[in-house]
Design brief:
Length: about 230
Amino acid sequence: MKSNILIIEDVAELAKLVCLYLEKDGMKVVCAESGEMALKIVEDFSPDLVLLDLNLPGMDGFEFLHIFRKTSSVPVLIMSARDSDEDIISSLGSGADEYITKPFSPRVLVARVRAILRRIQDVSDISSQSEQIYTFGDFMLYTNSCVLTKKGERVPLSAKEFSILLYLIQNAGHPILPEKIYNTVWNNAYGDISAVAVYIQRLRKKIEEDPANPKFIETIFGMGYRFVLKGTL
């Protein structure tokens, strides 16, 4: 089955070039030149991955990401000329899964896309072997459907947020170094180990009553992060 890719890029030449390379790799691609157009497209087109520029006319990439993450956990790869640490960290903190700076090689972009899709498939393959539900507090994490709910209401998670949360829960009670989380979840893909802390902050905002004083994901100084067993079934 072809993977569906949504490109949100207002520079038509670049969008066409990326589309060409992805289609040559066997993917189905739809392009949108604005965030507003992209939100309409996703109502009918179900992307497996979104490639998002930050500098868009009207609604910028950050605003699109904020709206998109309210209902979707589909991975988002930022492709932007903005290369400062602040932009990269803000993008990851807002819900992006990967970041590539312009100019980039189309072949490298395709490799990044393939790596993300492969990780999604790996999680799906593992989950489909046996459904398991983890319960903690008011939350339920479904390993098969990659869904987190709170009192029956779905809590949107990105692919990496889900992978990190599942990994922490499966090792509940044991502190895990950021390096180990990074190596396991990113699986030697491009990135920066500092992204682990960004994702932990994002998860805390979604599952903790007080993210500044977490009761589920603790920081054990010098030892990493530990998912607390109390309240976990």
